[in-house]
Design goal:
Blueprint (H helix, E strand, L loop, with lengths): L3 E4 L12 E4 L1 E4 L21 E2 L26 E5 L2 E3 L12 E7 L8 H13 L6 E7 L3 E8 L2 H9 L12 H12 L7 E7 L11 H11 L2 E7 L2 H6 L60 E2 L2 E2 L5 H27 L4 E3 L3 H14 L4
Parallel strand pairs: 2-5, 3-4, 7-8, 7-10, 10-11, 11-14
Antiparallel strand pairs: 1-3, 5-6, 8-9, 12-13
């Protein structure tokens, strides 16, 4: 079979009575895999996507401009174009089948200060789930724990969550491994309604056998809808001094111009100290310039302002880099699976994210 190209030019949030136009761009080659993507996601640059399929199945969320889900969409209101040519939509339906929902909770040391809030809001989330759904509870740090295997007894899941504790002695966080193994080994029942909810800071240390790229590819090909909920661990990592003490540090010293990781890959020039708010603004942007003593100027090389100079500021700088990388990874997981990425700077926002997920699960076509 010859490859056929499909182009995704743009996606629009329709008004209540507007037609919905989906124009795609990806490459479809080979046989028998199902491709799922989100029609309405955050305004970030989407990752490139390649899958194999003869039949293309889209998991789509329809929202208005304010992000509120639109229900009762009719097939004639949806148009799909390939290379400028309208394609026939075979079916559009919202399945009434129950969901298989895997809840993955990070219990690595960075959750120590918020563990009570995690338990309380996760229990409340499970209590609001439709009783027809099945749930699986997984926790992970440097190991992966099946705390409660598949069950329709939601009270059992809540009781298990009540007993979860942060593992303060954990030396790593096997996030990529947890996501990949759950997708490959546990969320395998042949049902179109499978979801994975992951509460994590998105920072992986030491996953065995699974890379960041591989975990995204596994989710992309699985047909599982993923909802990553990202907590903010920057302050915790900054307090640790070296954010990655037991592993090779993947983040450069911002004051070392000889480190190739400090150079722009396009120009080869040393990077300037990043300005907050210019890209991917977040609730706790980094300091705009390194601290200086009155009457002095910031350290420079070739006129380029260097990064933070104190050990505390260096730790904060690295923690910010880790957070940004994790945010990008979790966004990609959500994008390729028709899910949604949530940032929760405070534990109170976890409950809000859970409520939105429950609503979205009821409106996935």
């Amino acid at each position: 079979m010859q490859p056929r190209s499909m182009k995704r030019m743009c996606v629009m949030n329709p008004g209540p009575k507007a037609s919905i136009i989906i124009v795609m761009r990806t490459t479809i080659v080979g046989l028998s895999l199902i491709f799922a993507f989100s029609a309405f996601g955050p305004a970030q640059t989407p990752p490139s996507i390649q899958v194999s399929s003869e039949e293309v199945v889209f998991h789509v969320r329809f929202t208005d401009r304010s992000g509120k889900a639109i229900s009762n969409i009719r097939p004639e209101e949806v148009k799909i174009y390939e290379e400028g040519k309208e394609q026939k939509l075979k079916r559009l339906f919202r399945s009434e089948e129950p969901f298989d929902v895997a809840l993955l909770l990070d219990v690595s040391p960075s959750t120590y200060d918020i563990q009570e809030g995690i338990r309380e809001r996760s229990i409340e989330f499970v209590s609001q789930m439709p009783e027809m759904n099945r749930m699986l509870l997984i926790s992970f740090d440097d190991r992966i724990y099946i705390d409660c295997d598949w069950t329709g007894d939601l009270q059992k899941v809540m009781d298990t969550i009540e007993g979860l504790q942060t593992n303060e002695k954990s030396s790593s966080t096997h996030l990529y491994e947890a996501i990949s193994l759950v997708a490959q080994k546990k969320l395998t029942r042949k049902t179109p309604r499978r979801a994975m909810i992951v509460y994590t800071d998105g920072i992986d240390h030491g996953s065995d056998g699974f890379s960041e790229k591989e975990s995204i590819e596994i989710i992309e090909e699985s047909g599982i809808v993923v909802y990553p909920i990202q907590y903010d661990s920057r302050e915790w990592y900054a307090r640790q001094g070296n954010p990655d003490p037991d592993h090779n540090d993947p983040y450069p010293d911002p004051n070392d111009p000889t480190d190739p990781r400090n150079r722009d890959p396009r120009t080869g020039r040393t990077r300037r100290y990043p300005q907050p708010g210019s890209r991917n603004p977040d609730p706790q942007p980094p300091q705009t310039s390194p601290p200086t003593v009155p009457g002095t100027t910031p350290p420079t090389i070739g006129g380029i302002i260097l990064g933070p100079t104190s050990e505390r500021d260096k730790s904060s700088y690295k923690a910010q880099m880790m957070y940004n990388h994790a945010k990008d990874y979790l966004f990609k997981l959500a994008y390729v699976s028709a899910g949604r990425h949530f940032e929760t700077p405070s534990i109170t926002m976890l409950g809000q994210a859970y409520s939105k997920i429950i609503d979205e699960l009821a409106h996935v076509y």
